[in-house]
Amino acid sequence: MDEEVVLQEEDLEGSWTLLSWLASCLMVFGGALPYVPQYQEIQRSSNTEGFSTRVCLVLLIANILRIFFWIGKQFELTLLLQSVVMILTMFAMLHLCCTVQNTNRVSTKQHRLSDLDFRYFWKWSAFEDYLLFCFGFTVLCAVVTLLLLDSAVFVEMLGSLAVMFEAMLGLPQLLQNFHNHSTKGMSVKMVLLWTAGDVFKTTYFVMNESPAQFWVCGSVQILIDVAILLQVLLYSQDTRVKLG
């Protein structure tokens, strides 16, 4: 009888370990998955107008800051790996966008980081400029972190900045919908995917007792996702009223 109980406990432990491993893999690669169809769509249409590279900017800053937060306060290795995957994913998106835009460009005028023209910030023609900016930002973060690593307040502030940037990812879309009084041209499936991912990762953060910044960030993201979905319902009703 005792042997059966032990075997059952071992089976349960093995099942829990497998589920935990699968959840970790989903956390590492899940954030990058929504950008796969967008990458394929840009390749197919040779058009980047439907994708804002500002998304890449927000996610690159958020994940670079998160890596330095990890240096100051070691949390789950899963979240560190997730940041590395997201950074590589954003670089892949930027590289594709630059390639397509340069192919379609009629004018020979190019905008470079070295021009120091703020009007074209993050609208550069060369992929190398995006790499250079991120390298400079990373070096700046490394120097400041090295100097203030012993400060618990600084480390917590670093984590808060990282999750704040990530939490604001959906805000530009929310404001654009409000300004246009329409959600036309926005992928509802993408927002639903964001919502599902944000619910999953927030639950993961709570269950794994991650730093408070992470589950607060996830909660804010869920609220923004829900607000965008409410806009879809509101503006679709307004359209039906106008047509009716």
TrEMBL record:
<keyword id="KW-0472">Membrane</keyword>
<feature type="transmembrane region" description="Helical">
    <location>
        <begin position="213"/>
        <end position="235"/>
    </location>
</feature>
<dbReference type="GO" id="GO:0005829">
    <property type="term" value="C:cytosol"/>
</dbReference>
<feature type="transmembrane region" description="Helical">
    <location>
        <begin position="18"/>
        <end position="39"/>
    </location>
</feature>
<dbReference type="GO" id="GO:0042147">
    <property type="term" value="P:retrograde transport, endosome to Golgi"/>
</dbReference>
<dbReference type="GO" id="GO:0045332">
    <property type="term" value="P:phospholipid translocation"/>
</dbReference>
<dbReference type="InterPro" id="IPR052241">
    <property type="entry name" value="SLC66/Scramblase_ANY1"/>
</dbReference>
<dbReference type="InterPro" id="IPR006603">
    <property type="entry name" value="PQ-loop_rpt"/>
</dbReference>
<dbReference type="GO" id="GO:0005802">
    <property type="term" value="C:trans-Golgi network"/>
</dbReference>
<feature type="transmembrane region" description="Helical">
    <location>
        <begin position="51"/>
        <end position="71"/>
    </location>
</feature>
<dbReference type="GO" id="GO:0016020">
    <property type="term" value="C:membrane"/>
</dbReference>
<feature type="transmembrane region" description="Helical">
    <location>
        <begin position="77"/>
        <end position="100"/>
    </location>
</feature>
<keyword id="KW-0812">Transmembrane</keyword>
<keyword id="KW-0677">Repeat</keyword>
<dbReference type="GO" id="GO:0005768">
    <property type="term" value="C:endosome"/>
</dbReference>
<protein>
    <recommendedName>
        <fullName>Solute carrier family 66 member 2</fullName>
    </recommendedName>
</protein>
<dbReference type="Pfam" id="PF04193">
    <property type="entry name" value="PQ-loop"/>
</dbReference>
<feature type="transmembrane region" description="Helical">
    <location>
        <begin position="130"/>
        <end position="149"/>
    </location>
</feature>
<keyword id="KW-1133">Transmembrane helix</keyword>
